[in-house]
Specification:
The structure is a homodimer. Helix content of chain A is about 40%, strand content about 25%. By secondary structure, the first copy, chain A, is α/β, with parallel strands linked by helices. The N and C termini of chain A lie far apart (about 55 Å).
C-alpha cells in the first residue's frame, strides 16, 4: 500500500464539511490518479483541534475558515514550514496576496486557489496554465452568483431590486446580510485575484473601483430589453497604456457578448488575448459542494508537483480613468431645445452620441441615449453639467455598455 | 543564460507556420515562466528536413503534419526515444490513441493535445486536470466550427443548407471539400478523444455514431425558432448502464441549455458531473493562430514536468441504443383519424408524446411532435411503421431534442 497523503483541514462550515465528505468519497479515484491515497489528518474548528498539531501531521493544508485573522497567520506558517496550501479565501488573497505568494515561493510549495473565484468555473487554472504563454489583454467576469440571480429575476419578472433580493434570500442565493454581494465588494476581491494572474500585476482589493446593483430599477432593465441588451454586474480587468484597470459595475451587454446569456446564479469569465481572441468559461456559482469540488481538484494537482505559482508581480500603474460606452437616462421637461442643450454639453466634453430615444410622458419626457466610448472623467463632467440644467427633473441615471469586440 | 529547450516541428502548413511565428514572439515570456528559452531545432516538411536528424536535436516534438501515415510512426518513435510530444492530430488520437498513450507512458514523457479538440477552448486540460477528481457523467460539445457557422447562418437568414455552405466556403469557414465537417466525422473524432478523457474508456472513431447536417432544411430551423429551440450539431458522450455512449447528431436545444447560445464559428463543451453540476467552456473554433496558441500552451506545460497522461483505459462497453427526446415532422393528408393512428403506433412502442402542433396546408397537413425521452430503437421502429401509412406523404423527418438538466 502507498503512503497516505495527509490533508489538514482548517474550517468545517458548509464548504469544509462538503470537502471532508468529498475527499472520502473520491479517495479511491484520487489514489488511482496520483498513486497516493489522500486522508484527513485533522480538522481545526473554533472548538476543536490545535493548529500546530494538525500542521505537524499534514502534507497539505486546506484552508476553508475564511477571513483574515487568524487565517493569514496559519497560511503563512504552513507555507513557511513547507506545506502545500489550498485555499478558497478571496479576502485573504485580494488583500495579502503578494505576501502569501512570496511565502509559497520561498517554501518551494504549491499554493492553489481555484475555489476562491467563480465557483466551479476553472478560471484560475486556465489563466495560469492554458494561457501561460498568451498575452492577456482583458478579462470580463460575472463572478457573483447572488447579484446575477437578482438581475436575472428582475429581467424575467419585472420585480424591483428589493423584491428580487427577498426572493434570492428565500431561495438561499443571497445571505441574510447581502452587503458584500450586492455592493460589488465580493466581485471586486475576485477581480483583483483574476487581474493578478492575467497581468502579473499586484492588485489590492483597495485598488478595485466597484459599484453594486442596489440602485438598479425595473425601468433600467426595461430599456435594456427594448434595446436588446442584458444588464449584468460585470467585473472588468484590462491593460491600458502600460497600466492595469480593474473595476466592477452594472453594465448593459449586447446580445452577442458571451456573458449576455449567463443567467441565474451562474458565474462566467471571458478572457481576451490577441492569439486566442477569447475564451469563455461558465458554470454554477459557488455552492458548498461546487467549491469543495474545486478545492479537491486543487488538492489533486498539488499532489502532483511542481508548484504552479504566479510569477512575481511586476510593478504596473493602476489606471482608474477608463473609456466606456455609457447609457444615459434623463427625465426632462418636454419642451423645445432640451435635446439640443444636452447634446451641446456632451459635445463640449467630446462625448459623441450613438443613439437616442425620446419618449413623451405628458408634460415630461424621457431621454435615453447611448454614447460612443469616451473617457469616464469626461462623461461624468458632462453629466454633472447636465444635472444642473433647469429642465432636468431627476438625477441622471448612468450605466455602462459593453460590446462584443470580435 | 539557461539551456535552450529544443522544439522540433513536423509540418509547416497554416498551423505549423503560425506556431513557428508565435514561438518566436513569445519566447521571452515562456523563458520568464519556465526558466528555459524555447527554440526551434528543426522543421520537417514534405520537401525539407529529415525526421531522425530533427528528433536527435529536440527535447520535444510538435506534430502538425496531420494524417496517420507517416505521422503515427514519427510520433511513436519520438515517444519511445523519450521526447515529449504535442500534437493537434485528432485523426491519429481517435484511431490510435491507446497505442500512443502507452508509448508516452513507457517513455515517461508528456503527450499533450489541447489543439486537437475545440480550437482555443481548453477542454482537454480542464477535463484532465481540474476535473481529475470529479466523476464525469456526460459531455456535450459543439466541436465543429464549420457546421455551427452554417447552422447559425441558416437560422439568421433562412438560407438553405447549400446557400449557407457556399457562403461559409467564401468566408473561409468551410473547405472546398467540406465532407469531413458536414458529415459529422470531424466532430466524431473529437468526441472520441473527449470521451476517452472523460470516462477512461478506449473509444475508437469507428465506435462513434455520427450524422451530419446535409439534410437539414430551412423548415426544420423555422420550427425550431417557433418552439424556442436552436438547432446545433451536437456531440454527446455519456455513461449509460456501466457503458459509454458517444454520438454526433443535429439536435434541437432548449434556450436555457448552455450550448444554445453558441453561435457562428464558435466551439463549446459542457461537462456534467454530480459534484460540479456543469461547466461550459467556449471560444472560437480552430483558426491557424488559435490552434497554434493551444499548441504553445501545451509546449509550456510540457516544459514543466510531470507528465499528465490519461490513466490506462478501463474496459467499458460501448452503448449504441440511447434514450433521447425526439422531434418528428410528418407531411400527411389532411383527413380525420390521422393523428389518432400516428399516436396509436407511437403508443405501441411506448413512445409518449410531449407536444403536438398540426398545421393545415390545403389538402395536406403538417404534424410536428416532440416526444418524451425514449430509447432510440423503439422510436425508430415506430417511425418505420408510421412511414408506411398511406396518408404519409414524405419520409418522416426526425431530429433529437436536448434539454438543460439543471
Amino acid at each position: 500500500m502507498s503512503e497516505p497523503f495527509r490533508v489538514g483541514l482548517l474550517g468545517h462550515g458548509t464548504v469544509g464539511a462538503a470537502f471532508a465528505t468529498l475527499l472520502e468519497e473520491r479517495a479511491d479515484a484520487v489514489e488511482a490518479e496520483t498513486g497516493q491515497r489522500p486522508e484527513l489528518s485533522g480538522i481545526l474548528t473554533r472548538s476543536r483541534g490545535e493548529f500546530e498539531d494538525i500542521l505537524e501531521r499534514s502534507d497539505l493544508i486546506v484552508e476553508l475558515m475564511g477571513g483574515i485573522d487568524p487565517t493569514r497567520d496559519f497560511v503563512l506558517r504552513a507555507l513557511e514550514r513547507g506545506r502545500h496550501v489550498v485555499t478558497a479565501n478571496k479576502q485573504l488573497l485580494s488583500q495579502h496576496g503578494e505576501e502569501i505568494f512570496d511565502a509559497a515561493r520561498r517554501g518551494g510549495v504549491q499554493l492553489r486557489f481555484e475555489g476562491a473565484v467563480a465557483g466551479v468555473v476553472p478560471a484560475i487554472r486556465v489563466m495560469a496554465e492554458s494561457l501561460a504563454a498568451a498575452h492577456i489583454e482583458r478579462v470580463h467576469g460575472i463572478v457573483n452568483g447572488t447579484t446575477n440571480y437578482i438581475l436575472t429575476q428582475m429581467t424575467a419578472t419585472g420585480a424591483t431590486y428589493e423584491e428580487a433580493l427577498a426572493e434570492a434570500q428565500e431561495m438561499g442565493y443571497a445571505e441574510a446580510d447581502p452587503t458584500e454581494d450586492v455592493t460589488g465588494k465580493d466581485a471586486a476581491a475576485k477581480m483583483a485575484i483574476l487581474a493578478r494572474l492575467a497581468f502579473n500585476a499586484a492588485v489590492h482589493l483597495d485598488q478595485v473601483g466597484y459599484e453594486g446593483i442596489e440602485r438598479i430599477t425595473p425601468d433600467d432593465i426595461g430599456y435594456a430589453k427594448d434595446l436588446g441588451l442584458s444588464l449584468k454586474l460585470v467585473g472588468s480587468a484590462q491593460r491600458i497604456d502600460g497600466g492595469v484597470a480593474v473595476h466592477v459595475y452594472p453594465a448593459f451587454l449586447y446580445a452577442d457578448h458571451p456573458l449576455a446569456s449567463v443567467n441565474g446564479a451562474f458565474n462566467a469569465v471571458t478572457v481576451e488575448s490577441p492569439a486566442i481572441t477569447e475564451i469563455t468559461l461558465s458554470g454554477p456559482g459557488a455552492g458548498g459542494m461546487q467549491t469543495a469540488s474545486a478545492v479537491l481538484g486543487d488538492v489533486v494537482s498539488a499532489m502532483i508537483p511542481p508548484p504552479s505559482l504566479p510569477a512575481p508581480a511586476v510593478e504596473q500603474p493602476i489606471v482608474t480613468d477608463v473609456e466606456f460606452s455609457f447609457y444615459l437616462h434623463l427625465e426632462v421637461a418636454d419642451r423645445p431645445g432640451v435635446l439640443a442643450q444636452v447634446a451641446e454639453i456632451l459635445g463640449m466634453q467630446c462625448v459623441s452620441i450613438r443613439s437616442v430615444v425620446q419618449k413623451g410622458l405628458g408634460r415630461e419626457a424621457r431621454l435615453v441615449m447611448v454614447m460612443h466610448p469616451v473617457l469616464e472623467s469626461k462623461f461624468r463632467a458632462a453629466v454633472e453639467l447636465i444635472a444642473r440644467l433647469d429642465f432636468v427633473r431627476e438625477a441622471p441615471r448612468v450605466i455602462r455598455v459593453i460590446e462584443e469586440t470580435f
